[in-house]
Amino acid sequence: MQLTGYESNVFRLRFGIVIAIFQYKPMSRIIRGNHKFFVLSFLGLFFLGGRPVEFGKDKVFFQGFLIPKPVIRIALELNVEDVHIQASSGMKIYRIAENYKLLAEDASEVRVKDWKDQRVTINDDLVGLDEGTSLYFIPANPQGCLTYGGKNYRGIFILRGSLEGTILINLLNLEDYLKGVVPGELPPHFFGEIEALKAQAVAARTYALKNLGRFGELGFDLYATPQSQLYEGMSLEHPLSNRAVEETKGEVAVYDGKLINALYTSTCGGATENAEAVFGGNAVPYLQSTECVMENEWQDRTSREEIEARLNEYYPIGKLIDLVPVKHGESKRVIELSIIGSERRILVTGLKIRQVLNLRDTLFVIDRETDEEGLPAHFIFSGRGWGHGVGLCQVGAFRMARNGATYEEILSNYYRGIKIEKRMGY
Questions:
Q1: Worst-scoring range by mean pLDDT, 34-43, 164-173, 180-189, 311-320?
Q2: Do the Cβ atoms of 339 and 320 come closer than 8 Å?
Q3: Mean of pLDDT over the chain
Q4: Neighbouring-strand partners of residue 390
Q5: Scanning 50, 218, 326, 385, which has the fewest C-beta atoms within 10 Å of its C-beta?
């Protein structure tokens, strides 16, 4: 491992102090009598102690603030220009590059804006930044929390530049992260069955661990939005969902000894779909169509002109003539849709169908209201489900739990052939 200039200077300083202590005669007599204890103590103190582990291999400790492993980095917001952060019991602010500098010792709140040209304004003070510099916001009290956007968060905040602009990141323990995910994905106020919440906790934990480092080039692991998993911090925490996280601590779903890609959907509308039919690629043995409860019927009546304008944002089809389902999946979802335009015909597949039509799900049938020329004036989509329709159905899990199923039975129903393992220390 190659040391930076800063690390090299610190190393030489500590080494010199150790040598001086061993050469000091009264101290050397004490050391000879207790040589094992002192050798280990000095090595630990001067070669490991004092260095913030956050910038070493452990990445769970910085300046007195301990975050138990495993840790996860969640992007709260991208392209931020004006950041207002508050602390429940004060916070320290550090500027981090090759070394670190304390900018504030006990700030109750801070406003960071105009992050550009390697300069940033912190509470009206202009601070210069080197390339690769980050700002760390650390609660002064280990029991304290930070607030951003009206929501409270555990752990620490990191503000850093990237190719995607300035990113605000929440670094925290993964189990604490789950306490802010489970109630957002399956609200206990409406779905108050502990076994369903446990199933959600195991699925969310498995998904998070499977996708650690997914956006590593940007400095974080997952988004705080449904693009990854919905994460609302401490603001949505509920005793029942916290209990579900705690009682399944460390438990994950595996297939053939490996973490599964634990996808889940809000409501499947009666049956989940094969993963390959929605996302393409090869078949995934544990993500296959499964019968479920009938839920969430919906209808959407949209004018041809409105759909035409939306479709032309994706494909230059000209005037929309018709929409024709070509192929259905195991769950009866539309997995191939022909879009017929005056200028071209397009075949859209999988999840893209839901996106381009802006529908809740792809489990639908189409009716048409025609104009005087016999062309569709309105398309009427009648469907069921809400989401991509793959993996665990959250409403279905709730129904199963209400009927007496355990969380292991729920998970095994939606993820075929999996096992639940407890991984101590991850």
A1: 34-43
A2: yes
A3: 83
A4: none
A5: 50
Phi, psi for 322 (deg, rounded to 5): -165, 160
Residue 283 has φ and ψ, to the nearest 5°, of: -65, 140
What is the DSSP secondary-structure string of 286-326?
TS---B-----EEEEEEEHHHHHHHHHHHS---SEEEEEEE
Tokens at residue 293, please? 């409860």
Instruction: Indicate if the alpha-carbon torsion angle 67, 70, 73, 74 is positive or negative.
Output: negative
Q: What order of strands is seen across the sheet that includes strand 251-255?
A: 258-259, 251-255, 419-422
- Give 62-172's CATH code, choosing from 2.60.200, 2.60.120, 2.160.10, 2.60.40: 2.60.200
Model confidence, pTM? 0.76
Which amino acid makes up residue 296?
A: N
Tokens 């022909």 locate to: 338
Q: What is the DSSP string of 57-74?
A: S--SEETTEE-PSSEEEE
Average pLDDT over residues 44-70: 54
Residue 308, amino acid: E
DSSP 88-156: EEEEEEEEESSSEEEEEEEEEEEEEEEEETTEEEETTEEEE--TT-EEEEEESSTT--EEETTEEESSE
